[in-house]
Amino acid sequence: MSVALELIVDGYVRLNDRGAIVGLKAHRENLLALLRAQLGGCFDVSRSIAQMEEELAQIEAGLERLDEATASAPGNDMQASIFN
Fold it and tell me: Of 24, 55, 62, 79, which is the most exposed, with the fewest CB atoms less than 10 Å away?
């Protein structure tokens, strides 16, 4: 796993910056699609594909942590805000 990406995602989670995490995810998904298009070509891109998949898993985990933190934040009761 990429320690650098893990630190970046952790920082964005602490900053509550969902947009940055979603941007990272979109970028990795785009790269993964480009790499998959190269399968069977002149170069072996399987290791790069595996790395992108691991990074996407790290990013997804960061989004889940952000969702959990947002849901458990004080004063962030969705039902209360809808009905009051």
Answer: 79
